[in-house]
Model the fold of this input.
Amino acid sequence: MTEPAENKLFDYSPIVDRPVIRWPGGARVAAYVGLNLEHFLLDRPSSSIVPETADAVPDPLNYGWRDYGLRVGVWRTIESLDRHGIRASALVNSMVAERYPQVIAAGRERDWVWLAHGRTNSVLHTGMTFDDERRSLTGIVDTIAAATGRRPRGWMGPGLTETFDTPALLAELGLHYVLDWTNDDQPYRLNVPGVISVPYSVELNDLIVFRRGITGAEFVQMVKDNYEQLHADAEHSGRVMALALHPFVTGQPFRHKYLDQALEYLAAQPDVWLTTSDEIADHYQRTVGADIRPAA
Done:
């Protein structure tokens, strides 16, 4: 019998037994918007709204639903982000960087930060050999850097997937943090020199939330409830709130006003540091000392 894999990537660390985190300006909660910018392949099953046709090639129904995001939905999302003064943390497939120059240009104009998010969300980042993954990651990072003018410092795998080698290979490429391990309300150190985990959410994630039948009004209430609890938890040490967005979900016309209400609420909170995942990682390194190389 094969022995089960041991988790050597990070150690158990109860949140009540850690160094205190102090965010800038005395904020209790550091909040960021993780904006997923994803390209999907025409002949591969991917995230679907109607499972019955998901294996069809081509699959106009589900492909069109996904494709709506970068054609239409993202422009509504950008409008709301601009209205409330929020810089996105853009989780970008390298194929987006190659194929959607207008979206990349809009992000560059707004000084978004760019995280590597695989090549396409139609192919999960698992099952690669060490050498194949090194080549793949190098190409992904170099492509995004060339298109955006900024080398990514963070990573989230397509479908939040990694291999056992991914964090170490990312460190070789100069990346400093990952979002894939959604198990905490604070950053923490990985057992890979120079790499930390920054919180992301699969619960406060529009793709998950709305596929469960949650309404727009309920989504706004979830954002408020999430912030209020983290704010209370952060009485003695700061917390992180990640709002995960997909333009083909919250970019739909009937959901847009609810996204706008959620962002308006966050922007109005007196104890929030509305920031980016890059800045959260940097601040954690400087103040808690997580063995991260400073940003170039």
Remarks:
- Residues 290-296 have pLDDT under 50 and may be disordered.
- The first strand starts at residue 29 and ends at 37.
